[in-house]
Write a structure and sequence with these properties.
CATH superfamily of the largest domain: MFS general substrate transporter like domains
Number of domains: 3
Strand content: under 5%
Oligomer: single chain
Helix content: over 70%
Number of helices: 17
Distance between the termini: 25 Å
Number of strands: 0
Radius of gyration: 21 Å
């Protein structure tokens, strides 16, 4: 096996591990809550603790990768991911699980940007497209097999095996990496924006804590108000600091481009729904519909399959006709799909009450994802495509983080039939807002002048997972 082949194998396996872990967690949530207690609040934290550290540290991780070497950062991330996976699997209570998930998200942030950056730095430009195409195909497979695989593990063995399965592939990829040696730190590396990273974590952490705990403590509680105020102040300080930082983690100058600014604002609302929708649907199918975890994984799989089958076609159409119409109609089609599921009854009939809506959701997602990425990266100078991609991925992750944190405000303390209906309407509302923002804010580039091609590797996330998605943070 030559060096390039080893690099490709490492990049694929590393990303597959991170994405598979994100794809399986939803189907395991009811079993986790049944054993550890904590109800919906624990289920929220099991997802959001991971998203919090992943979303807030992914930009920092990209800088660390550029500065200290991709292989070094990947190794640190793999050791951290293995250790935290074991801690998740052994968690005796919900508190330990949430802490372990937060640490696991931090390790995942080291893996996601470094894996693709390793391909970019190893393969010559003429071979990058093919290599990244193979990377994309394999990592997308994680989202296809994840829900079904996770459901089988939960039903036949235990939810704990969902975390134990990470250890074996991590050990294998570390062995493969031994032949790659060690890379040297970049001698001219830029200063790391540690203050920006800290403010981002505190800001998101305080806000998310308040959103989740408000359903238990109430908005008037000091335990909610204090974290909320601290979180908001930290986020304001983060923006002010990024405006003046010598090497900002988030270059605000990127948002001077209209399509980049409008596209990321649309991303926030669209990906909030892409995270919240599958989260509530998977839990509802198991806890209220009585589905085993395996069947719940199968039941929510059609949108991912349709995204894989139709995404490239809609990407090509957006290159031909411009992304604006697809970014507008796609989210609205997804919204219609979720509204079709509000006919759900206590005596659930999946084929009549859920499947039609889920198929419409898949069609709308396929219409949306590639054009969205095309519009955003097409607005960024090619030399800054890596950081532009990372920003868009961070926005998508943070959107999911906030959406899932808000579920208690939307549905109350449990996902019964009425709670699911409220959640589906909220998801549809987010999507319509995203579509309207796209129509108002997005402008089609001149023909032949700049939209990222549908065949060009970009940061297009695979949205059915609420945890993580492919990132092109070079």
């Amino acid at each position: 096996m030559d060096r390039r082949t080893r690099v490709l194998v490492v990049a694929i396996v590393v990303s597959f591990i991170a994405f598979l872990d994100g794809a399986v967690i939803n189907v395991a949530l009811p079993a986790i809550a049944a054993e550890l207690g904590g109800g919906l609040m624990l289920q929220q934290w099991a997802v959001d603790a991971y998203l919090l550290t992943l979303g807030s540290l992914i930009l920092l991780a990209g800088s660390l990768s550029d500065s200290f070497g991709r292989l070094r950062i990947i190794r640190i991330g793999l050791y951290g991911f293995a250790a935290t996976s074991v801690l998740c699997a052994l968690a005796p209570n919900g508190v330990v699980l949430v802490i372990a998930r937060a640490l696991q998200g931090a390790a995942g942030a080291l893996l996601v940007p470094s894996s693709l950056a390793l391909i970019i730095s190893t393969f010559p430009h003429a071979e990058q497209g093919r290599a990244i195409g193979r990377w994309t195909a394999w990592t997308t497979a994680a989202f296809l097999v994840g829900p079904l695989f996770g459901g089988v593990l939960v039903d036949l063995v235990s939810w704990r095996l969902v975390f134990w399965i990470n250890v074996l592939p991590i050990a294998a990829v570390l062995l493969v990496m031994r032949a790659l040696g060690r890379d040297e730190a970049h001698p001219g590396r830029e200063r790391i924006d540690w203050l920006g990273a800290g403010l981002g974590v505190v800001g998101l952490g305080g806000t998310v804590f308040a959103l989740i705990e408000s359903s238990r403590l109430g908005w008037g509680s000091i335990g909610v108000l204090l974290p909320l105020v601290v979180g908001i102040l930290a986020l304001v300080a983060f923006v002010l600091w990024e405006r003046r930082a010598p090497q900002p983690m988030l270059p605000l100058s990127l948002f001077a481009a209209r399509n980049f600014a409008a596209g990321n604002l649309a991303t926030f609302f669209i990906y909030a729904s892409f995270a919240l929708g599958p989260f509530v649907m998977t839990i509802f199918l198991q806890e209220t519909g009585g589905f085993p975890a395996t069947f719940a994984g199968l039941a929510t799989l059609p949108p991912t399959v349709m995204l894989v089958l139709l995404g490239s076609w809609f990407g090509a159409l957006s290159t031909r006709f411009g992304p604006r119409i697809f970014m507008t109609t796609g989210p609205i089609v997804v919204a219609v799909g979720y509204l079709l599921t509000v006919s759900v009854q206590r005596d659930l009939n999946y084929w009549a009450q859920f499947l039609p809506g889920i198929l419409v959701v898949g069609l709308g997602m396929a219409m949306t994802v590639a054009p969205l990425t095309s519009a955003i990266l097409g607005a960024v100078d090619p030399a800054r495509a890596g950081i532009g991609s990372a920003v868009n991925n961070a926005v998508a992750r943070i959107a999911g983080l906030v959406a899932i944190a808000s579920i208690g405000v939307i549905v109350g303390s449990q996902l019964d039939v009425d709670g699911y209906r409220r959640a589906a309407v909220a998801v549809a509302a987010f999507l319509v807002v995203g579509g309207v923002i796209s129509w108002i804010g997005i402008r089609n580039p001149p023909l032949g002048a700049g939209a990222a091609s549908a065949g060009t590797p970009t940061a297009a996330p695979v949205p059915p997972s609420s945890d993580s998605s492919p990132s092109a943070n070079e």
